[in-house]
Specification:
The complex is a heterodimer of chains A (321) and B (404).
Chain A: H1 2-8, H2 12-16, E1 23-24, H3 30-33, E2 38-40, E3 45-48, E4 55-58, H4 60-70, E5 74-76, H5 89-108, E6 116-118, E7 120-121, H6 127-139, E8 145-147, H7 156-169, E9 176-178, H8 184-192, E10 197-198, H9 202-208, E11 211-214, E12 217-220, H10 240-244, H11 247-253, H12 258-284, H13 288-299, H14 307-315
Parallel strand pairs in A: 1-5, 5-6, 7-8, 8-9, 9-10
Antiparallel strand pairs in A: 2-3, 3-4, 11-12
Chain B: E1 10-13, H1 14-17, H2 21-24, H3 31-34, E2 42-45, E3 63-67, E4 70-74, H4 76-86, E5 90-92, H5 105-125, E6 132-138, H6 139-144, H7 146-158, E7 165-169, E8 172-173, E9 176-177, H8 182-187, E10 195-197, H9 203-212, E11 216-217, H10 220-227, E12 230-232, H11 236-240, E13 280-282, H12 302-306, H13 309-317, H14 322-345, H15 349-361, H16 385-402
Parallel strand pairs in B: 1-2, 2-5, 5-6, 6-7, 7-10, 10-11
Antiparallel strand pairs in B: 3-4, 8-9, 12-13
The chains are: A alpha/beta (321), B alpha/beta (404).
């Protein structure tokens, strides 16, 4: 019913009155998050509803057709996703199937002229698999690429290495979308490694629990110490929350009143956008390494930088102060 | 701001802000400023008007408020402290609310005597030059023991120069209007002090109360309607439309298919059908699944300019936080338009009755007829309640409440 309605509405942009870009995912992530309810075969993923036991089959073709109707500007292939802590044959199978499913997605895509279809590099934490996967995907000549299967529960040291391998191989002139990232520090480090686009639920989810993001880290406004702090959430921020309300006020309503969710979500999203703008501007102005140094010092004033960040940044020639 | 607060004040209640006042004081902010509305007047009441209060919890030490942390006793000195910390523009004097039609006379007497005691304390201890105190009259006093009620009222009136308005509490019990003549109570009150009936009333019940002499209402009904996924679609612009002179409002909805943006400026074909109009829509209903029109084609609020019924239906069905926000914005806008219409029509009984009938006749879930004095739909002659109240209200008393 949903896709039919969106078709009638002439796309999601119209339905929700959003004039800017929209990106849709394929439904593939649920293979991991709802693993118990999913049966994966060469044909596609069969999901079983926990409510009434009914089944629905999500094939690569079906996923693309739905995304065509939604009308997002960037759409994702249906990939065979495994949790980043899985090892062995299953990882190989998933990586190889992802390539076959990409070809089916490309064939099914009705609007390549106005919707960019991104393939997703898989391969778990295996460098060789990732490499093979990326090489195959590049042959299909898509407008951009996603790096998937990371940002699960894997160790950060493994995480950055897999990101790095992917960005090494993927063409430099096309966007690289790192899925599921993330925390401020991860965004900066992965940008240094060559990623361009990200998505994450973290800023809004943490907002709903009363946490605000700043360039000095996070603050949990529920904490007693903010009860009489009349300064804005973030002195340097110009969002509607920071220009209207105080930390003390947000403290008094956080996790109690729904409006607190909205106020902090607004700030955290504004923060994300400011962070990305700083990354972009410093790259354009040729001072990106200096920005990274300043940013990391802001997050770690005592210079107790995490080892993985040091290693990752060092791999692209950035030393921290 | 995306919507204009117009002639409204914000209502804050002590129960939901019980833990706040100690954190507001050191800043020196008024409660208005603390909650982000520095220029808007605030009205501090004891309880959230939508909260059902439990009987049996008031005593000599104070009255009960139900806070986030559970029930707490609010005594007069804490109350005064809260008022001093919050610096509200208007406030309700501490009141013993625990009375109803089934109270004993003894309970009534406790309530009346405590209310007077609280009023005296407030008059002595709170500086009235900065803010306005409203004394509370419990309607149930008159229901159970008119004798004690009259005594209490007399005492209150002796002090009338020391406070600024009256709250008539308990007009409804458990959703039903009490069988009492509100007009008779109000007739004893001084003309120059506003009267406020807190609580949830249907729009035509508000008009009945206006006829009886009430000036102020809160937006409880708006919250309730929005919580149920419902929206007002009063189409007052059509009702107000005069064929001779009106320029139809043509808001442009930025949302979808062009066909649903066809706003027909010609209202003449609709004139016959006002009373059949559905004035409250439940957007959770399946019929709105593919309805790409705005809630109201004559409404210019943010929600109606940007979104469709289908999208709002979707937000409500998926429990998205944005849904209730958009509904509240629209419903508050409709509520404000309703009050503008009431004020406009007050001097003319026929027009007042027209709006009243329009609202009442389309109310599908009408309660048993409310008996508020003799406020039926009869249009009376020159000394009718409507005309007397019109004169009083249009003598700009309301504007002192509205603020600038």
């Amino acid at each position: 019913m949903g896709p039919g309605l969106l078709e009638e509405a002439r796309g999601l942009h119209n339905f929700m009155n959003w004039k800017r870009n929209i990106l849709t995912d394929s439904g593939g992530f649920q293979m991991v998050s709802l693993l118990n309810l999913a049966e994966i075969t060469e044909e596609g993923v069969k999901f079983k509803s926990p409510y009434d036991g009914s089944e629905c089959m999500l094939t690569p073709e079906e996923s693309i057709h739905i995304q065509n109707k939604i009308g997002a500007d960037i759409i994702m292939q249906l990939d065979d996703v495994v949790s980043s802590t899985t090892t062995g044959d299953r990882v190989v199978e998933a990586m190889e199937r992802t390539i076959r499913w990409l070809d089916r997605c490309i064939a099914a895509h009705k609007h390549p002229e106005r919707q960019s279809l991104f393939p997703i590099v898989q391969g778990g934490l295996n460098a060789e698999l990732r490499q093979r996967c990326a090489e195959e995907l590049i042959k299909r000549n898509t407008p951009g690429f996603a790096i998937g299967g990371l940002s699960g529960g894997e160790a950060k040291e493994d995480f950055w290495k897999m990101v790095s391998i992917s960005t090494e191989i993927l063409p430099k002139g096309k966007p690289r979308y790192l899925m599921g990232v993330g925390f401020s520090e991860d965004l900066v480090v992965c940008s240094a490694l060559g990623c361009d686009m990200y998505d994450c639920v973290f800023p809004t989810r943490t907002a709903r629990f009363g946490t605000a993001l700043l360039f000095t880290g996070q603050i949990t406004l529920k904490h007693k110490k903010f009860a009489q702090d009349y300064s804005p959430v973030d002195e340097t921020c110009h969002c509607s929350t920071c220009t209207t309300y105080s930390r003390a006020y947000i403290h008094s309503i956080a996790t109690q009143e729904t409006v607190a969710c909205h106020l902090l979500s607004i700030h955290n999203i504004a923060f994300q956008m400011r962070l990305m703008a700083k990354i972009r501007d410093s790259i354009k102005n040729g001072i990106f390494p200096e920005f990274v140094q300043e940013f990391m010092l802001g997050m770690y004033p005592t210079k107790n930088y995490p080892q993985w960040s040091l290693n990752a940044l060092s791999s692209v020639g950035i030393q921290l102060i | 701001m995306v919507f204009n607060l117009g002639s409204q004040a914000i209502q804050i209640s002590i129960d939901t802000t019980y833990t706040f006042h100690e954190n507001v004081k050191p800043s020196g902010y008024t409660i208005s400023k603390f909650v982000g509305f520095p220029k808007i007047p605030s009205f501090l009441t004891i309880h959230n008007p939508l909260r059902e209060l439990l009987p049996g919890f008031n005593d000599r030490s104070g009255i009960s408020v139900w806070t986030r942390m559970g029930r707490r006793t609010l005594d007069i000195s804490k109350f005064i402290q809260i008022v001093n910390d919050f610096q509200p523009t208007f406030f309700q004097v501490l009141s013993d609310y625990d009375v109803s039609v089934s109270s004993s006379v003894k309970r009534i007497r406790k309530s009346t005597s405590r209310n007077l005691e609280y009023l005296n304390e407030v008059i002595q201890k709170i500086d009235s030059s900065a803010r306005s105190a409203f004394g509370t009259i419990e309607v149930s006093w008159f229901l159970v023991s008119p004798f004690d009620a009259e005594i209490a009222l007399t005492h209150m009136l002796e002090k009338q120069h020391d406070f600024n308005g009256f709250i008539l509490n308990g007009v409804k019990t458990s959703g039903k209007i009490n069988p009492i003549n509100i007009s008779n109570i109000i007739a004893k009150l001084p003309e120059n002090k506003p009267r406020f009936t807190p609580g949830e009333f249907k729009l035509w019940e508000i008009m009945d109360l206006v006829r009886s002499g009430v000036d102020l209402f809160d937006s409880s009904v708006v919250t309730r309607v929005s919580e149920e996924g419902q929206v007002f679609s009063l189409q007052l612009e059509k009702l107000n439309h005069s064929k001779a002179t009106a320029t139809p409002v043509l808001p442009s909805n930025e949302s979808i298919p062009a066909k649903s943006n066809q706003i027909n400026g010609d209202f003449s074909s609709d004139n016959e059908n006002f009373s059949a109009a559905q004035l409250v829509l439940n957007l959770r209903e399946k019929q709105y699944f593919g309805d790409f029109s705005p809630i109201s084609t004559t409404c210019n609020c943010y929600t109606c300019r940007k979104y469709t019924r289908a999208y709002l239906h979707h937000l409500l069905c998926t429990s998205e936080l944005l849904g209730p926000v958009l509904l509240m914005m629209h419903n508050l806008d409709q509520f404000e338009k309703f009050f503008q219409a009431v004020r406009q029509r007050l001097p003319d009984e026929q027009k007042f009755a027209e709006l009243y009938e329009y609202l009442k006749s389309s109310d599908a879930t009408q309660l048993p007829i409310s008996v508020i004095g003799n406020t039926s739909t009869e249009v009376k002659n020159d000394d009718s309640p409507v005309r007397r109240n019109a004169a009083r209200i249009t003598n700009q008393k309301l504007s002192t409440i509205e603020g600038d």
